[in-house]
Specification:
TIM Barrel, 470 residues, alpha/beta, 17 strands, 7-stranded antiparallel sheet, binds beta-L-fucopyranose, single chain
Length: 470
């Protein structure tokens, strides 16, 4: 008995002073596939098809198949440009609204097989999926449910044709990391609109690609950010209320798409799709309108820097190459990001937290580069401060914070202060953080920085902090 009491006393001692348990998850959380997707941060969109040859943005669906004839398709070049620019995957418009399929889709007569390209034996999805695999980047597929060519469009049969289309695109080219469903829903060749069978489309995607992230206005994998300008909300929750909404015209209101819903019941993070050119498709006349480096950096901060993934469209030209104007800009973009983010000026700082959950959740985890180690407060503590005593005086103008989203998104407001002449001066006051938040400030020179979590739905959980200078 005495032995038993001693063991119980020892157990009690260990539970009081030992490692505290991890915080409970708050609200909906990402699936493992959504978490991996979020960590990709930047992907490339490739709009390519008949419009590349006609100069239209929305093909009519009546274009002759022989219009599609790239003189030198080089998907290896797309993949190597994407990789060099820091993109982790490429999403190709396998079928845009004009209905033309970039692969020999057996349920369509409007495909590469009917075109003169490679005598009808070519397959862009095959070439691109292989090129992505060779470069070690991921392959994704955009398919427009709206189809201006298919004679079944506007009748219930079209849903079956569309399922077969999905099956052939998703079942033959290896792993597909994202299935992009365009929300545009216009009229088909018979002047009718289609009533889409979304549950059937979703179950088809899951059957063939269980880990694919499905994009639409309501997910289920990720959501449209509500504009095509590259701007996610300054407040941006990865939660969304999806009940009662459908992709496209039946989608949630613009502010929900842009900012998420703080009380949303599903994890549907934002994806920001924007083109490097004025249009989605390549046009020679727009070669001098490729976005500037400054604009691309701006977009980076308003997408990746606001808890969103960036899907940057870089449309290949009519030879089937990424235009040198675009690739040169992308390389400048990557070099600028590397220059800005290669040195974390907070490295080596001594951190004092106003509250720490216990062993294993120390604030030093914020600087260890390990995604899965984090600082957290004790249960019931939802406001806290972290003071970073920097290794000497530093000048910075970018502040980066990351919440550990496997436990949900919690923080609703925070401020950052810098110590100036012995006084704390506020340099930023913001709302959400999420997977990643980068705040741009004036250049600040100081040897101490304080982060104040002023609002959180549950004990805050942060896994990374950085100070950078551009
Ligand atoms: C929109 C489409 O209508 C555009 O053509 C483009 O594909 C863009 C990404 O999505 O809904």
């Amino acid at each position: 008995m005495r032995h038993f009491i001693e063991i119980m006393a020892l157990a009690l001692l260990v539970s009081c002073c030992g490692k505290a348990g991890a915080p409970e998850a708050f609200g909906p959380t990402p699936t493992p596939a959504q978490l991996e997707w979020q960590k990709m941060e930047m992907n490339m969109f490739a709009h390519f098809g008949p419009n590349t040859f006609t100069g239209l943005e929305w093909g009519l669906g009546t274009e002759a198949e022989d219009i599609f004839n790239p003189s030198d398709l080089d998907c290896a070049q797309w993949a190597s440009v994407a990789k060099a620019a820091g993109f982790k995957g490429i999403i190709i418009t396998a079928k845009h609204h004009d209905g033309f399929c970039l692969w020999p889709n057996p349920v369509s007569t409007h495909t590469v097989a009917q075109s003169p390209w490679k005598d009808g034996k070519g397959d862009v999805l095959k070439e691109l999926s292989e090129a992505c695999a060779d470069e070690g980047i991921k392959f994704g597929i955009y398919i427009s449910p709206w189809d201006r060519n298919d004679p079944h469009y506007g009748t219930p049969e079209y849903n079956d044709v569309f399922v077969k289309t999905l099956e052939s695109a998703l079942g033959n080219y290896g792993e597909v990391f994202e299935q992009w469903f365009d929300g545009a829903n216009g009229e088909g060749p018979n002047g009718k609109k289609q009533v889409y069978d979304w549950p059937l489309f979703h179950s088809t995607v899951w059957e063939y690609q269980p880990d694919a992230i499905m994009f639409s206005d309501v997910g289920p994998g990720c959501r449209w950010v509500g504009n095509e300008n590259g701007v996610a909300g300054r407040t941006n929750w990865s939660r969304l209320t999806v009940n009662g909404f459908t992709p496209g015209a039946g989608g949630p209101k613009g502010s929900s798409l842009n900012e998420g819903d703080k009380d949303g019941d599903c994890w549907v993070p934002a994806e920001t799709d924007v083109s490097i050119r004025p249009g989605w498709f390549w046009r020679e006349s727009e070669n001098d309108k490729v976005k500037s480096l400054e604009k691309l950096l701006d977009i980076y901060y308003t997408s990746v820097g606001r808890n969103s993934l960036l899907l940057l469209n870089v449309p290949p030209d009519d030879r089937g190459h990424i235009d040198p104007v675009d690739s040169a800009r992308l390389i400048e973009f990557k070099a600028a990001l590397d220059r800005i983010f290669s040195t974390n000026l907070a490295d080596g700082a001594k951190i004092k937290a106003s509250n720490t959950r216990g062993r294993g959740f120390n604030a030093k985890n914020l600087l260890d580069g390990d995604y899965d180690s984090y600082w957290a407060t004790a249960d019931g503590i939802t406001t806290a401060s972290l003071t970073f005593q920097l290794k000497g005086e530093k000048s910075f103008n970018r502040i980066m914070l990351q919440e550990y989203i496997p436990l949900g998104q919690r923080i609703s407001s925070f401020t950052v202060e810098a110590l100036k002449d012995g006084e704390w001066k506020e340099i930023a006051s913001e709302t959400t953080i999420g997977y990643k938040r980068i705040v741009r400030t004036e250049t600040v020179t100081t040897d101490a920085v304080r982060v104040n979590i002023t609002g959180s739905y549950a004990p805050p959980v942060l896994n990374a902090f950085g100070l950078y200078c551009d």
